[in-house]
Amino acid sequence: MSKLQFRPGFQHICQLSADKGIIFYTIADILVYYSIFAIRCIKEEIIVLAISIMLNHVHFEGYFKLESRMVALLHGINTSFAKTYNSNYHLQGPVFHHGFQHSQRYGEQKIRDAFIYIGNNGKVKTPGINAEDYRWNLIKYLASPNPFSDMIDYKTASPNLLYLLSDVLNRRRKLQPLDYGFFGDKYLALNEIERQQLIDFIISVYYCLDREKIMPLYGTYDNICTALNAVSGSEHGFVDDLSKEDYRHYYKMMSICRRLGYDITKLRSFSTLSLAESSKLGTENALSFALEQNYGFRKLASTLRAESGCSDYELAKFFHLLD
Questions:
Q1: How is 111-135 classified by DSSP, letter by letter?
Q2: CB of 218 within 8 A of CB of 83?
Q3: pLDDT of res. 273
Q4: Is residue 15 helix, strand or coil?
Q5: Cα separation of 257 and 280, whole Å?
Q6: Residue 301, SS3 per DSSP
């Protein structure tokens, strides 16, 4: 955590994965984390202005009166998520880095600047989209409960979708987050249209951004989008993950792995290196070592490079081989 003299107010917080590798390989990963985050903030009455869930880190802007409450919130979210994540994937250890970075935001201009910066994270990593089109910054949900799907027709919806919608409402009413069991057979039986409807529904039901605080900063939703796409914002309080990468490459790699029958949530098992060994070798050597030692890894890596256009850095990040 950044060593700053804490003052009550809005904080821009960034939490990186424990080994810099990807955390969120699936929609289930994102929504389980998001629902844990949302419920924790609701219970703790934390005002949240912005969030962006990236593949290996999370940004958010929230108001804290006490540093201890900020630390406790992050600890609670990370502990809860690590417990369910590791249980689901049969892993051990922390998912997020034990510390986090934060930058204090005082005055309307700095609060707005952090909002813009966080809102643009997905755009920076996914060239060719507008900032609001990155689903996991939740910007479009300020204007619509279902911005990425058709409105649900409850008369024609499948029994599986209706069951899951009811389950979401019941969990939210009880202040319970989703777990991986939610994404079982009934979820897998949905067609793509219904899956997108369900995802929008979950995000809206658990929505944690404070509209009443956000809208006065810009006046209208259109003004928010204009501001987001006119400037990128800035952050001088800490060093962000500024690596040059294209998230479209990761999405393609995930799709390729599913097509080839690989369990993408267990891809790190291809590596014969421990995190400590990988750190000693460095990214380039760690990747080379893994390629030499494991034929299955070498074959898959070759396919991913050819079909996704990924760089060595992106490949190493995908397989948790960063130094």
A1: HHHHHHHHHTHHHHHSTTS-GGGSG
A2: no
A3: 45
A4: strand
A5: 28
A6: helix
- From the number of C-beta atoms within 10 Å of its C-beta (0-12, 13-18, 19+), residue 150 rates as exposed
pLDDT in tens, 270-302: 544 444 454 454 555 556 655 555 656 788 889
Which amino acid is it at 80?
Answer: S
Q: Torsions phi, psi of 167, nearest 5?
A: -65, -40
Residue spans of beta strands (DSSP E) within 35-180: 48-53, 57-64, 101-105
Calculate the CA dihedral of residues 230, 22, 184, 172 and round it to 10 degrees.
-50
Low-confidence ranges of the chain (pLDDT < 50): 1-2, 269, 271-276, 278-279, 281
pLDDT value for 289:
54
* Residue that has been written with the tokens 């529904």 in this structure: 201
Cα–Cα distance list, 233 to 112, 131, 135, 142 (Å): 8, 12, 19, 20
Q: In what order do the strands lie in the sheet with 9-16?
A: 48-53, 57-64, 9-16, 101-105
pLDDT in the model for residue 320: 84
For residue 89, give Cα distances in angstroms to 133, 186, 255, 267, 268.
30, 20, 19, 11, 11
For tokens 């994937």, the residue is 89
Q: Which two tokens stand for residue 152?
A: 């649900």
pLDDT (tens digit, 9 = 90+) per residue, 71-83?
999 999 999 999 9
Q: Does the model's pTM come out above 0.85?
A: yes
Residues 283 and 266: their CA atoms lie apart, in Å, by: 20
Distance CA 52, CA 24 (A): 12
